[in-house]
Amino acid sequence: MSTRHTFSPEETFQPQGSQLNTILVLFLLLRLTLLFLYTPQGLLNAYTDYYFYYRSAQLSDAGYYPFVNMWYEYPPLTAYLHILPYRLVRMFLPGGDIFSLTYRLYATMLGMIFLIFDAGILVLLHRLAWRLWGGASANWSAWVYASLSVPLFFWSYSHQSVPTFFCLLALTWYKERQWLKSGLALGFGAAAKIIPLLLFVPFWYFLRRRWRESLSLAVGACGSLICVYLPFVLTGGLPWIRASFSALIHVNSYGTFWALLAGNWGPGSYGPLSTRMQIFVPQPVSDALLSLASWAVFIFFVGVFIFFLWKTHPHERGDHLVRLSLLTLLLFHLWSKGWSPQWAVTLIPLMLLCYPHGLGLVLTLALSGLVFLEWPLAVAIPWKELYALVIFMRTAFFIGVAWLIGKDMWQEREGMIESVHG
User: Fold this and answer.
1) Is residue 246 a contact partner of residue 282, using CB atoms and an 8 Å limit?
2) Half-sphere exposure for 92 (CA within 13 Å, toward CB)
3) Is the pTM of this model over 0.85?
4) Is 135 exposed, middle or buried (CB count within 10 Å of its CB: 0-12, 13-18, 19+)?
5) Backbone angles phi, psi at 21, to 5 degrees
6) What is the rounded distance in angstroms from the CA atom of residue 320 to the CA atom of residue 211?
7) For residue 313, is pLDDT > 90?
8) Contact of 378 with 394, CB cutoff 8 Å
9) Separation between Cα atoms, residue 44 and residue 34, nearest integer Å
10) Measured between alpha carbons, how far is 344 from 160 in angstroms, rounded to an integer?
């Protein structure tokens, strides 16, 4: 296990030993992944989420905008990042389908926007790792992330780099003791995707005995969310905001162990875009088993989290905050009825920050392999057995990483107790 390093800004770090084996593994993995994903329609895949973003942005031609006169499954920040490049392109080009020049320019501009966030992830990962572990580990973590295929693929597929950036920004500002800014980052992250708001739980845990810092964190998170949603509320969009959250709550289970129990083998679907202009009316939940057991499952995972805190007593050390943040997200994904492969982009930097050495590489490569087994392989090969196997393997992997985090922190606590009594 790496040890924490106390350093001055002027100090330089020189990596020790050859890293050729690590470089070669990542080099081969990246290129083999690209070779596997190449299709006659182009590099990576014949379909990306960019298609959906484009088609939803086209609704603005008819005057429909998220949270103004339509509901949308993504929060406002992400929704309008999809629309912004489209409106810019439409200033110069006519509308068109996904084979038009309009779409190609739109996809390029949207990719550039997401690339800014992806580059920010790399910078923040290096900055956090430097503060936690020193320069050598920071450099190692940064080029490992830069060489991985999963962040590369999903940068050109979805917007997952946006909430991931805000998660790391919140961690960075927390580590720098800027509680208000950290809360602001959590709020803006939740305005891009709900998941970053989960990090408020471990953040609050470490500040629970300092009410001023806790209050600053909460004010920052609430303030940024109010800034994002208030304009839509003032313009009469509250019914559309409620409809958007209702759609998120009532979508069927997908891609998880719970989905297999309910017999749902497809992806999560919110219906055709034409339904976005109608106030969402929750339909009867088809997952009767999940409906009856949802509260019991939720209480179980909350209990697991509380038990973990009671047994380990994580103390305010930078890597403990990162570990508790990763554990929070893992337990959420184990509890959640839905899973999308692009969410691995948020887990990978946290794994590298928790284990900035060979174990971190093993964990990220294992998660990368599970992601590509699930999509596109398990989707391209219509074998329910393969799809179910991948879900069980991912579930076991998340449980294993959560157990590893608990074990490491428990051993550290035992070591601290022995040193005090010794």
Assistant:
1) yes
2) 9
3) yes
4) middle
5) -60, -45
6) 20
7) no
8) no
9) 7
10) 9
Q: Do 107 and 51 meet the contact criterion of CB atoms below 8 Å apart?
A: no
> For residue 61, what is the DSSP state?
G
pLDDT tens digits, residue range 67-108?
999 999 999 999 999 999 999 999 999 989 988 899 989 988
Whether residue 350 contacts residue 196, with contact meaning beta carbons closer than 8 Å, is answered with no
Structure-token match 């979805």, residue found: 158
Q: Which of 254, 257, 255 is closest to 395 using CA atoms?
A: 257
Count of all residues that appear for the chain in the document: 422
CA-CA-CA-CA torsion sign (363, 369, 373, 376)? positive
Q: How many CA atoms lie within 13 A of 271 on its CB side?
A: 16
15: pLDDT confidence band, cut at 50, 70 and 90? very low
> Per-residue pLDDT averaged across 325-330, rounded?
95
Instruction: Determine the Cα–Cα distance for residues 184 and 164; give it in Å rounded to an integer.
Output: 14
Residue 17 clears pLDDT 80, i.e. is over it = no
Q: Which residue shows structure tokens 């209050």?
A: 215
First-to-last alpha carbon distance for the chain, in angstroms, is 23
Q: Which two tokens stand for residue 6?
A: 């106390």
Distance set, CA 44 to CA 13, 88, 241, 267 (Å): 37, 26, 34, 20
Burial of 34 (0-12, 13-18, 19+ CB in 10 A): middle
Rg, the chain, Cα only: 22
Instruction: Kindly state the average pLDDT of the residues 194-198.
Output: 93
Contact, 337 vs 253, CB < 8 A? Answer: yes
User: With DSSP H G I counted as helix, E B as strand and the rest as coil, what are the percentages for the chain, rounded to 5?
Assistant: 70, 0, 25
**């219509």: which residue's tokens?**
382
Contact 180, 220 (CB under 8 A): yes
User: What residues contact residue 366 under an 8 Å CB cut-off, 6+ apart?
Assistant: 397
Q: Tokens for 358?
A: 């060979």
